[in-house]
C-alpha cells in the first residue's frame, strides 16, 4: 500500500497566539499538516525597564519575606537576571535565602536551585491548589509571602484566587509581577486573528499563557465582537491551552478547553494533533465512499480532495443531518457572503461534485434540494 497523501492535521486551521516560541509551535503543527496563522496576543515589558519590578525587589531586600513562592522557571530566572542588571542580585538572593522557599513545579525548582535557593517543598502535580493547601495547613497567619508571578499586569494576575486565599489565611502577600505584558498593537495581525475566531475561520486556537487569553478577550470587547468570539469558542472553534492556568479565564466564561497532561509546548502540539481530528472531523459513508470532512478539505477513501470555501460550506450543511434533504434556500444561507440567488447553490454543488470526484455523492431531490447519498442512513461523527 502507498503512503497516504495527508498528515494528521491536513485540512485543519490552527491559530497560534504565542508571544514566545510561536515559530517553534507553528513548525510542529505545520509538520503535522495544519494550516497555521500566527499573531502574538501580547508584547512583553522589557525587564530592565520595569520600574515596578525594581521597586518590589528593593522592598523585599529592605524587608525580607517569610515565604517565597516560585511559580515559573523563566519568571524566576528573569527576575534574578533583572536584579543583576540593577546591581541587586546578591542582595536579593540573600534576602530570599532567609525565607522558606516553595516551588510550583520542576522548572521553577531548577531555577531556584540554580540561584542557590533550594526549595522546601514542591508538589509533584505542579498544582497551585496543592501548593496552597500545603502552606495553609502549616499556618501562614501574619506571614509575609512573596509570590513570583509570570505574565501579570497591575490590573490582572494569573492566580487571582490563589492570592486571595493566601490573604484570607492571614498572609501579607507581595505579588512580584515578572514579564508584565501589554496587549498587541491595535489594527494589526492580532485584530485579524480575533476577527477570524469570530467568523469561525479556524478549527482551533492555541494559547500558551493566560495573558494571551486575557488579551484576546480584551481585544474582542474593544472590537465589539466579544459575543461572537465566545460563541465561536463555545462552538466549532476549539480552545487548546497548554495547561489549566492558561485555560482558567476561558473556563470562567463557560468556554470548553482542552489541554495536555504535561504543560509543555511539544505536548501541546501532540495534544492538538490527537484531539483536533476527533473534535472536528466528521466521517460519513456515502455512495460507496468513506468521506472525512475536515476544515478546508474532504478525504474521499483516504485521498485528499481540495474543496472551495463554498463547497466546504455546502458539504458541512449536507452532513449536518446525513441523508436528509437540505433546501436550496437553506444551502444559500450556509454559503459565504450574503447572496440571494439560488443559482449560487447550483454552482457550488456542481463544483463540489467535481472536486469530490463522484457526482453520485451529492444527490439532487427534484423541487426540494440536495442530500448526501448515505448508505442505509448510517453516519458517524467523530
Automatic annotation (TrEMBL):
SMART domains: Trans_reg_C. GO terms for biological process: phosphorelay signal transduction system; regulation of DNA-templated transcription; uroporphyrinogen III biosynthetic process. Gene3D superfamilies: 3.40.50.10090, Winged helix-like DNA-binding domain superfamily/Winged helix DNA-binding domain (1.10.10.10). Keywords: DNA-binding. It holds the Pfam family HEM4. Residues 281-374 form the OmpR/PhoB-type domain. Residues 281-374 bind DNA. GO terms for molecular function: DNA binding; uroporphyrinogen-III synthase activity. NCBIfam families: PRK07239.1. PANTHER family: BLR5956 PROTEIN. This is Uroporphyrinogen-III synthase.
